[in-house]
Design brief:
The chain has helices at about 1-20, 25-45, 55-80, 80-90, 90-105, 110-130, 130-135, 140-145. It is mainly alpha-helical. About 5% of the residues are buried.
């Protein structure tokens, strides 16, 4: 449990750093150089493993999803700030639960449904009390055209 709490604290710090960086660099710049940095750090460990092409395909798919999610986080931080973005983004356990049940047919315990209800209730409180968040839900087409 302490490792998960430590990870949560580090993710919190990363949102603040990401917010600062996003004011100074484009999404493409952040993703490119961030990926190179991670590759350099992980290469000594990863290159000791036997290559499994099935796993590589899964990693490519997951990283594509991660890149798209990162773009949405980047855009949200620029529009609403790190605090609102991280709070809304932290509803992801609800989606993990839902997708695990749908894709992997995992049995979901009743306590997880209750937790999911709390997550959605928290999101509703944020949505109904944050003009910045509600305004960010309606992006004009010109916004997307400027980021292509």
């Amino acid at each position: 449990m302490q490792f998960a709490l430590f990870a949560a604290a580090l993710y919190g710090l990363s949102y603040i750093i990401y917010s600062w960086s996003s004011e100074r660099a484009s999404f493409s710049y952040l993703m490119f150089f961030g990926s190179i940095y991670c590759a350099i750090l992980s290469a000594p460990f990863a290159l000791k493993e036997k290559i499994d092409f099935g796993v590589l395909k899964a990693i490519a798919f997951e990283r594509s999803i991660w890149l798209l999610a990162s773009f949405f986080i980047y855009t949200s931080i620029k529009k609403t700030g790190a605090a609102v973005t991280s709070t809304v983004e932290s509803t992801y356990p609800f989606f993990v639960m839902l997708l695990a049940a749908l894709i992997y047919k995992e049995k979901i315990q009743p306590s997880l449904f209750i937790g999911g209800a709390f997550i959605l209730t928290g999101l509703a409180i944020i949505v109904f009390n944050s003009k910045e968040f509600v305004g960010s839900l309606t992006l004009p087409l010109s916004h997307w055209a400027n980021h292509s």
